[in-house]
Amino acid sequence: MRKLVLLIFIAFLSCKEISYKAPQPRGKTSLHEVPAALLGAYVLVNDKDNSKDTLVINSRGYLVLSDNKQKSIGDSLVLKSYKGYYFVSVNENPEWLLRILRPEGNGDITFMSMKTDESSFNDLLRNLSKDVTIDSVVIDNEKLYQIDPSPGQLLKLIKKGYFSETSRMVKVKSQPPH
Fold this sequence. Notes:
This protein is mostly beta strands. The chain is built from three helices and 13 strands; from the N terminus they run αββββββββββαββαβ. It has helices at 2-10, 121-128, 151-159, and strands at 18-20, 30-31, 40-46, 51-58, 61-64, 69-72, 77-82, 85-92, 95-103, 109-114, 134-139, 142-147, 163-173.
């Protein structure tokens, strides 16, 4: 179970990942509470190793039961809504990492992230640079690649397939425990 939590929510510290200069989508208002459409308990299923865990989303943020640590919306965890998607930005100074949630009609949530397979990272950079400007900076001997797309550009990146389903969160309850 812990492995799944690390892969989905704590894996924001990937070796190679495109990051952002600010919470996304840029210029859109941050939500101070999680919307009702996302509230509930979800089974997190990782098809690769058949591990499962439970994620509880409440009005303040989320809790992964095996971890038992509440992650709350605030300065380092920003939630925004735009065009049917929810954007979760996590501050990993000096960069922001992004995950996207797409509610499904049956109550499940599709969890999306940018494809960052290390073996094809250079191909990703090459292709992505055709759609948005990529800046790079070296901090603590590590090269970071950052983009700052407009909201429209961000939607185009989603539609072009730069973001893919990382996992599906299957809803098990309509209201989370408090």
